[in-house]
Fold this sequence. Notes:
This protein is α+β, with helices and mostly antiparallel strands. The protein has 9 helices and 4 strands, in the order ααααααααββαββ. The protein has helices at residues 5-9, 12-28, 35-51, 56-68, 80-95, 99-110, 122-132, 150-157, 185-205; strands spanning 158-166, 171-178, 209-214, 217-218. Strands 1-2-3-4 form a 4-stranded mixed sheet. The radius of gyration is 17 Å and the shape is globular.
Amino acid sequence: MAITYEDIRSNAEIRTYIAQADASLVALGFTEHSFAHVTKCAETASWLLLSLGYDEHQAELAKIAGFMHDIGNVVNRNDHAQSGAVMAFRILDKLGMDPADVAVVITAIGYHDDKTAFPVNAVAAALLLADKTDVRRSRVRNRDTIRFDIHDRVNYAVERSDLSLDTQARTVTLSLAINTEVCAVMDYFEIFLERMLLCRKAAEFFGLTFKLDINGSTLL
């Protein structure tokens, strides 16, 4: 049975898990992981695959994986990629998705968390790039926290964030405008270096070079 992104995006069960997962992260003091984040990840992952010549079906699976990738946070932040993959398997199997498609989606979800992430297939690689490059001011819920929480301070300092793909030069570039009065560029690396290295691995899966541009200077 063909399950579409719109089926997933409008599914009440899935939306409940995403909302409750984000509510738990609010209590823990994390940045926004709700519908804005997962929708952005879904759209970015799909755009990357289509731009790289993958077919509509792969792009649709990337959208589904992107939208569902953080549902495991409803169980616990720790190992949320693995619990999310198990949850996604149950949901997608119940909806009647083809097992081959289920396998692609749950693999991408299961391999997206920083500590265990790896671009094991095209959808996983696209999801990694989409997820790890979602740095933006609007993810900070309470600007008071930027005084003492470096994650919030770094996200709040990002006034502009763009991910671009140059298929001719074979590069994918994250361009950031960081307000250095809010945080130093070094603070960004302190928090996100591991994620940038994951982006490099994901880019290499596609035969691309990952570049990081901050305030007009290429740093990776």
